[in-house]
Write the structure tokens for this entry.
Amino acid sequence: MKEQGYKVAVVGATGAVGNQLLSVLEQRSFPVREIVLLASGRSAGRTLTFRGEEHPVQELTESSFDGVEVGLFSAGGSISAKFAPIAAQAGCVVIDNTAHFRMDPDVPLVVPEVNPQAIAGYTKKNIIANPNCSTIQMLVVLKPIHDEAKIERVVVSTYQAVSGTGKDALEEMLVQSRLMACGIEWTKEDSVERLLEGMAPYKKMATSVYPHRIAFECLPHIDVFLENDYTKEEMKMVWETGKILDPAIRVTATTVRVPSFFGHSEAVNVETEREITATRAREILNSAPGVTVLDDPKRNLYPLTALAMGAYGTFVGRIRRDESVDHGLNMWIVSDNILKGAALNAVEIAEILVDKYL
Ligand code: A2P
């Protein structure tokens, strides 16, 4: 590690993840010598605070990466597709938060608690990929179980917050929820009656980010639909688990966008080769890096997004035997999708990168 620190660029600095990247870099005292904040031309002229000082946001251009040593990208797949190779060519190591490079065999895909050794492969393209938010939190918990009992199959259903889509989606849900809650002058007395009548005025609410209203709704649709009728988000969980943890594990996923602002939740069912009891799973997860077990049903204690929000850990609870198979467990996994699911994981990768390789 260089004593004087590194010149670090944040691409998409004004976005939901970019914003948290700055906080995490600051909170973890990442060795930043100089920070470069990049976004679209729309944001040029704005300033953002980093370590108590205002820094200008600059428009991302091909010459933005002069002297930049570490680039944290979170401005969408097409921006990474174009600008990550330009940055890499200029000598910057890119840590990319989009899906664009994740399955490239020459690009490491890393969850530091699971496969930190893969970072060494960054030299092939000067790019490291940050996995999908839902994959990260699932694998942080599944890795110690896999080591102990060898996972053969995973069935996962996700309940994913709107912040994962970005700031425009947050705004869309806020506007829709306000309209639904306060849009017409319901009195306390007749509100439930009118709700039961079917909320007719809201059935055709305007949407722009999602294909349907997200407020008070669950959308079984994240990212685009593929030929096999799964969504790309679902297949990311399948593909990325293979690349990061073990290609022999069979995974099937249903990913759902739910009307919560921050924090992804997952119902995860695993089948293992060897027997593992719920008690043993709790025991090994209690000492696993990055994992906090919250599992006391008698006290109504289990992971919630409200507990996970703003926290660095991944939370697991509701651990119980799947009584329908020989060796199976069910569990509920929750994490802050913008932190461990994105910004924190990226900064943890950057920490290992500078510590061991730069
Ligand atoms: P801007 O705020 O200028 O639009 P989110 O994921 O929360 O939607 O944020 C997306 C991030 O990506 C924002 O920082 C946004 O900047 C940035 N971005 C979007 N389009 C571009 C672009 N063409 N060039 C650079 N940054 C972009």
User: Anything to note?
Assistant: DSSP finds nine helices and 13 strands in the chain. The longest helix spans residues 339-357. Residues 12-18, 39-40, 42-43, 60, 75-76, 79, 166-168 surround adenosine-2'-5'-diphosphate (CB under 6 Å). The chain has a mean pLDDT of 94.
